[in-house]
Amino acid sequence: MAPLRVLCVHGYRQNGGSFRDKTGALRKLLKKQVELIYMTAPLKVEPDRHGEVAVKENDSAPGPRGDEDSRGWWFSDTQARSFSAQQQCEESLGLEDSVASVREAVKAQGPFDGILGFSQGAAFVAMLCSLQEQKVEPEFNFHFAILVAGFRSACKEHQKFYSAPLQMPSLHVFGQEDRVIPDSMSRELLPSFQDPQVLIHPGGHFVPAASAHRQTYQDFLKRFQ
Questions:
Q1: Keywords in UniProt for this one (predicted)?
Q2: What's the pTM?
Q3: Per-residue confidence at 54, pLDDT binned at 50, 70, 90?
Q4: What are the catalytic residues?
Q5: pLDDT at residue 59, as a whole number
Q6: Is the pLDDT reported for residue 82 higher than 90?
Q7: Cα gap 178→119, rounded to integer Å
Q8: Which of 10, 128, 145, 183 could form a disulfide with 14, with the two C-beta atoms 3.0–4.6 Å apart?
C-alpha cells in the first residue's frame, strides 16, 4: 500500500526545514503510513526585538535553519507585520499570498491525500479546509486534516471560515501544558468541524509522537488508505 501523501504546514516563526527537523519523531512513528511533504510560508517575519522569541512556535532551541528564515501565514498586526494568536483584529495581512502558495505547492508537488498543520499553520489549515468546501479553490482536494495546537483566528475578516461545520475528517491534537496555544483555544476550534477526532497529550507546544500516540494516529489514517 502506498503511503498517504501529507502536506505539512509549519507554525509562526518556523519554515519548512525547521518544521521538518522538529517532526522527525512523527515521520519515524508513521513511516509506513505517511510521506510528509513540507512547504514554507511566503511571509517573512522580521527578527523579534522585544524578547517575544521565547513564545515562538518552536518547543526547543532554534536550529541552524530555525531563526535565519522565520516565516508566517498571516499577520494580525498589519502595521508591525507581526502575529499573536490572542490579538483581536479587524483585518489581517498576507493571507491571500499564503493561500496562493498552497495552491502552487499542490500544483507542483501534489496531489496530496491530506494536510497537517501546527499552531498558526493548524489555524491556517482550518481556513484551507473551509475554502475547499466552499469550492473556492478547485486545486484543493485534501481528504483529511490533522491540526496540532490549532485555534480559531481572532481576526474579524476570518470569521467567514467558521460559518458552517466542515465535513472534512479531522484529527485535533493538543497538549494540556501548552503555554503558547492553551488547550482551551484548541477546543474552541472543534465545533468548526462536523465530527472532530481528538488526541490530547500531557505535554506542551509540540507535535507529539510517542509510541502511546501511534494507535490514535493510525486509526485515524487507516480510513484513507
A1: Hydrolase, Serine esterase
A2: 0.91
A3: very low
A4: 119, 178, 205
A5: 46
A6: no
A7: 11
A8: 10
pLDDT at 66: 44
Residue 161 cell numbers, joined: 471560515
Residue 131 backbone phi and psi in degrees, to 5: -60, -40
**CB crowding 154-172: b at 16 or more within 10 Å, else e:** bbeebeebbeeebebbbbb
- Percentage of the residues of the chain whose pLDDT score is greater than 70: 91
**Predicted local confidence at residue 154, as pLDDT:** 86
Write out the three cell numbers for 89. 483584529
156 vs 78: CA distance, rounded Å: 13
The grid coordinates of residue 56 equal 515562538
Beta-carbon neighbour count of residue 61 at 10 Å?
A: 7
Residue type for position 39: M
Q: Annotate 11-72 with three-state secondary structure.
A: CCCECHHHHHHHCHHHHHHCCCCEEEEEECCCEECCCCCCCHHHHCCCCCCCCCCCCCCCEE
Helix (H, G, I), strand (E, B) or coil at 112: coil
Which cell numbers in the block locate residue 90?
Answer: 479587524
Quote the cell numbers at residue 153.
483566528
The residue written with cell numbers 472543534 in the block is 190
64 or 200: which carries more pLDDT confidence? Answer: 200
